[in-house]
Amino acid sequence: MIDEFLAILIASGLLFVGYYYHNAYRRERKLRLILFRKNLSNSEEIERTIREKEKQYQDIYDTANSIIIRWSPDFKIHSINPYAEEFFQINKEVAEGKDVVLDLFQIPFEKSNEVKSQLWNIFHRPEQNIRQEYDVFIGENDKRTVTWSNRILKNEFGYPYEVLSIGNDITNRKIAEENLMKSYERILDLYNNAPCGYHSLDKYNTIVSINDTELDWLGYGREEIVGNLKFSDLLTESSQDKYKLITDSFPNENLTGVELEFIRKDKSTFFVSLNSTATYDKKGNFVISKSTVFDITDRKLAEDKLNEYSQKIQLQNTRLQKAVEAAIKANRSKSVFFSKITHELRTPLHAVIGFSQILEKDPNLPNHLKGYVNSLYENGVHLLGMINDILDLSKIEAGKMTESKERFSLVQLWDTLFSMFSYRFSEKSISFELLNPTVIESCYYEADLQKIRQILVNLLGNALKFTNQGSVSLEIQIQRTPEHSFDTVKFIVKDSGIGIPNDQLHSIFEAFQQTEQGSSYKEGTGLGLSICHQLVEFLGGSIYVKSTIGEGSEFWFEIPLTRLEIIPGELVQKSKIGPIHTKELGGTTKLEESEEEFVQTFLNTSAPELKREILQLIRIQNFGQLIGVLNTIKTEDKGKNILEQKVKNKKYKFLIDLVQSSNPLE
């Protein structure tokens, strides 16, 4: 019974244990199923999250505005993003598997090991992100500077299998930084090497900056002054008081031109001029003052000497003023004396010259006296010329020169000069001509013709005097000014004479001055060029000269001439240009000699008043009026017809000979 009970009890225990484990198994199985389902759901969520992250990464990779390169430790390219494709101008498919240094960065082979060594160093550094900066090439010549952020990707064993490099092109920034640095260096160089001193003071008047120029003046090193000395430490006691008074009186004002005395390190002093500007913050609080300093020591010394000299000069001026007044008074007296004495001398000289000409033509004059009479005539003419020069100079110096205007043409002026000089040049076998004659045609002006003619007569007379062979020319140039009522006319006289030394050109326009060649070559007063100079200035112009010894001289002057707006018909008739070269004169023929006899007979048989009028009109070259006078003579005298024809054809040599063979008193 007991055994059965024990068997039943054991069987019940086993049944209970079996039931318990069965229920436990079912519970565990159910729990495992629940956990499996939960893990499956989490796995899907994780996978979905990973896919989203991968998509986000790919979007960032594809759209990033930076260069992204994935490459292996053996420098082979795994992939590049679109921006890198565009930057390096290479397709992703072409780039994959290529060498990142040689093929993508296009680093020259001889420098590739240096770059690869730089890249290989990133594998030996503990940082996650490693920054580097180096140059890459796009094509042959386009070098770009790129800054890189490198991240090493490792496998589960800790070995690197890939490098992710993100680059940004900083070429423009580098260029800007370099330019900025150069500008800063230039500014710093200008600041330190400026010809003036610069310094800045803080609110305690301590020097916080100073340039090299001011340091050199003071003899200090920068570390001795900056942050250690106040501005007042650089000033003498009197300048300290002056500076304090100014800054206390005008605390917020800029300082300009304040003169102070600085003390150098060696205790010597020098004077400066200070300009200072204060700067303030937005609240009106003082920040710093900037000052410019100029060394005025030399100026101060010069001012002291100038004051000393000024006193001496003032004393000298007082003495000179009295001397000048006396000289002016004496000069006026001299001019008046010359004017009166030359007037008195010219009258008897005209008589001497006239009577000497009469004596020379007297058939009863003994032959042994003809030379004396000719010498008397030539010296009389020479003396009259000297007296006329002195009289002209006296008028100019006395201020009695007046301007007398008349209407004329440049053709008339040339014809007059040609008639006066052509025969004299021909006698010396020197050619005389007008250059560019077409320039002066139809040029009519109103001016002081007598003074212009006098200037040219003096210049041509000098050319004749100092030229023994070759040529003399006159050229007239006209600079028209339509906006004004006048033209600038330039007269150029050029000769092939003896020339003037360069060291004497500056004095030839002074009164009573002659060059060494001129004074030894010919006699004269030395007044001709001085008169020319003063007449040109009186007419509002300027006169110049250039010369070469042995080759000749060139004188030219420019004067303004008022244009004629309305030109009289008779002036046009008188302005037909005649000969322009002495070669057009030809020689005197026997026919002309016989023609001169007919003309002389006509003049001698005419009324004395008519003869004097005809000769006078020939002398002054008024051929237009002379034609009118001849037309009024109602006779068919052969001499009258010959004279009329010679005048119309402007036979200067014939007319000059005619006047010279006549009595000068007629």
Automatic annotation (TrEMBL):
<keyword id="KW-0597">Phosphoprotein</keyword>
<dbReference type="InterPro" id="IPR036097">
    <property type="entry name" value="HisK_dim/P_sf"/>
</dbReference>
<dbReference type="InterPro" id="IPR005467">
    <property type="entry name" value="His_kinase_dom"/>
</dbReference>
<keyword id="KW-0812">Transmembrane</keyword>
<dbReference type="InterPro" id="IPR035965">
    <property type="entry name" value="PAS-like_dom_sf"/>
</dbReference>
<dbReference type="Pfam" id="PF00512">
    <property type="entry name" value="HisKA"/>
</dbReference>
<dbReference type="InterPro" id="IPR004358">
    <property type="entry name" value="Sig_transdc_His_kin-like_C"/>
</dbReference>
<keyword id="KW-0418">Kinase</keyword>
<feature type="coiled-coil region">
    <location>
        <begin position="299"/>
        <end position="326"/>
    </location>
</feature>
<dbReference type="InterPro" id="IPR003594">
    <property type="entry name" value="HATPase_dom"/>
</dbReference>
<keyword id="KW-0175">Coiled coil</keyword>
<feature type="domain" description="PAC">
    <location>
        <begin position="256"/>
        <end position="308"/>
    </location>
</feature>
<dbReference type="InterPro" id="IPR003661">
    <property type="entry name" value="HisK_dim/P_dom"/>
</dbReference>
<dbReference type="InterPro" id="IPR036890">
    <property type="entry name" value="HATPase_C_sf"/>
</dbReference>
<dbReference type="GO" id="GO:0016301">
    <property type="term" value="F:kinase activity"/>
</dbReference>
<protein>
    <recommendedName>
        <fullName>histidine kinase</fullName>
        <ecNumber>2.7.13.3</ecNumber>
    </recommendedName>
</protein>
<dbReference type="InterPro" id="IPR000014">
    <property type="entry name" value="PAS"/>
</dbReference>
<dbReference type="Pfam" id="PF13426">
    <property type="entry name" value="PAS_9"/>
</dbReference>
<dbReference type="InterPro" id="IPR000700">
    <property type="entry name" value="PAS-assoc_C"/>
</dbReference>
<keyword id="KW-0472">Membrane</keyword>
<feature type="transmembrane region" description="Helical">
    <location>
        <begin position="6"/>
        <end position="22"/>
    </location>
</feature>
<feature type="domain" description="Histidine kinase">
    <location>
        <begin position="340"/>
        <end position="563"/>
    </location>
</feature>
<keyword id="KW-1133">Transmembrane helix</keyword>
<feature type="domain" description="PAS">
    <location>
        <begin position="183"/>
        <end position="244"/>
    </location>
</feature>
<keyword id="KW-0808">Transferase</keyword>
<dbReference type="Pfam" id="PF02518">
    <property type="entry name" value="HATPase_c"/>
</dbReference>
